[in-house]
Design brief:
This protein is an all-alpha fold. It has 8 helices and 2 strands, in the order ββαααααααα.
Length: 158
């Protein structure tokens, strides 16, 4: 990882732009509570699942550090509630349940339980991380500022 050109945070230079755009689009869809936008981004995420998951982890870590740096109090319970609220009505009930319960297990360090709850479906992790990115990002930024910051962090042009 290197610092991105804007110096805002980590960016892997070898991540293709279409993956970065997909990650920003997923988080934006959750931030906007826009189911249509989410449905357009999901197939692109599935086509590059490993790279998308990797970039979502990088973005989630960056946003977590930003929350800490700003002094916003964000505890695991806040994270669980925010992710559950963010995916509510955005996903079919069975996927919503899988995402919420797997995220809950993840936040308390129960990775094996989280893995079982996903039934091995990497898209559950995509939804978990994208919803978390939207929730924690909106705790620090206004929507437009969040998306602009994500574009900078990932190295995408405005």
């Amino acid at each position: 990882m290197t610092e991105n050109p804007g110096g805002e945070g980590p960016s892997a230079p070898d991540v293709p732009d279409h993956v970065k755009r997909t990650v920003v689009d997923l988080i934006a869809a959750y931030a906007d509570r826009n189911r249509d936008e989410l449905e357009r981004a999901v197939p692109r995420a599935a086509d590059a699942i490993d790279e998308v998951l990797s970039e979502l982890r990088v973005v989630a870590a960056f946003l977590s550090r930003r929350v800490q740096a700003t002094g916003v109090v964000w505890k695991p319970a806040d994270s669980r509630e925010a992710v559950a609220r963010t995916v509510a009505e955005m996903l079919p009930p069975e996927l919503e349940f899988a995402v919420s319960t797997a995220w809950e297990a993840h936040t308390v360090g129960e990775e094996e339980a989280a893995e079982r709850l996903t039934n091995g479906d990497p898209m559950v992790y995509v939804h978990m991380l994208a919803a978390f990115g939207a929730a924690i990002g909106l705790a620090v930024y206004k929507r437009a500022e969040l998306i602009s910051t994500l574009r900078q962090v990932t190295g995408l042009a405005e």
